[in-house]
Amino acid sequence: MEEFEWPPSTSTLQANNFTSEGISEFCTNWMKAIKSAVVVQDRPRHIRPSNLIIWTVGLTCVTVISLCAAVGIVFVKKLSKRAYNHFITVLVAVGVGSLITSSTLHLLPQGLGVVDGENYEFIVVMMFCIFGIYIFFFCDKFIKITLESKKMNEIELLNNVGTHISMEAGVVSIRSTDALINENDNNFKSDAFPISGPIKGYKKRTSLLKQNSDVDSTIRSSLDMSRQAHGICVHDHEITFNQTKDSAIKTVAWMIVFGDGLHNFIDGVSIGAAFSESLLSGLSVSVSVFAEEFPHELGDVAILLNAGMNQKQALFYNLLSTITCFVGFIIGVVLGSVESLLRYIFGFSGGMFLYIALSCMMPEMKSTMDEALENGYVDAFLVLSLQTTGLALGTFSMFFFARYGDLIKFS
């Protein structure tokens, strides 16, 4: 918004003593001043990076994001289940914080044209909006932890009272049933009940069923471990255990190719348009996409491996879905060069980021907290501290880009 000087119309009006000429001049000058005050200048807020920087830095960021699958294979193999869950808990929270902050401090303000490098009042307002979301989220968690701990204390007290009563009543019954137990033991050890034939076969089948149950529970546990990293709505892939391994692999592969491919395409468009605006905008959006994509790519790899794929197959199908990110980046750069379309791309990307963070990833954080509450309030406080750390990292990193990004000079 350009500066202007208000015309001395009041003095002119007083000099002409409210004559018709004075009133006409007064109205004309004030209308010109008002028009000059409300004109919104559609000038670019930043110097557009050169094509060399856009393509080299942008493609580098897209490549790093696309390599999450390869890194995911290493993490799935090396990390223990507990370490993996803690790492994913932090990273999902980082994704939520960076997506919300990137949308409210970068994408939507650029779409509305309020970023000018001098007025940072909108940042303060948006930060209050973000803190409002976080405060209600943490209040809900604290209330749940408090109620759950109170409930567990009451259950423990009842169990202690019941155990004390049963122990006192059991002294008499134990003495009276010792003879009966011994008699039954002697009967089972006698030749009247030889352990052979069908009974041995039954015991063997029972042992095999137990082993199969253990294997199935291990697979289910591994899938539950990856579900936290895979909770984003556009990434949901349900696995069913079929007798034919190839059909299960084929179903999972196609769901990943089409579902993740569409999401990666939109991410690529957002990154390309952001780099067309400025280098800092592109970097901030890339960091947000990376923090959001990394845990979900880990979930993709875990699901593919548990579905029966080897490492090469899992890597191939996952990388196949990331090709659309490069296609989206190219389209985003081309569309970003058109100033009239750029703000609409930012608005669409900002809405997508908010939907992913609030509707998909935050409920996943809630379910993680609910699972931790089942193990006790100590685990719940640990998960809450990990989520708080992740939200703080994601939020303040994007705040740094928005508030102090103009001070960073690229030679």
UniProtKB/TrEMBL annotation:
It is found in: Membrane. GO terms for molecular function: monoatomic cation:bicarbonate symporter activity; zinc ion transmembrane transporter activity. Keywords: Membrane, Transmembrane, Transmembrane helix. GO terms for cellular component: plasma membrane. PANTHER family: SOLUTE CARRIER FAMILY 39, ZINC TRANSPORTER FOI. The gene is bma-zipt-15. It comes from Brugia malayi. Belongs to the ZIP transporter (TC 2.A.5) family. This is Bm6862, isoform a. InterPro entries: ZIP, ZIP_Transporter. It comes from the Eukaryota. The chain crosses the membrane at residues 52-75, 87-108, 120-143, 315-335, 341-360, 381-402. It is a multi-pass membrane protein. GO terms for biological process: intracellular monoatomic cation homeostasis; zinc ion import across plasma membrane. Pfam families: Zip.
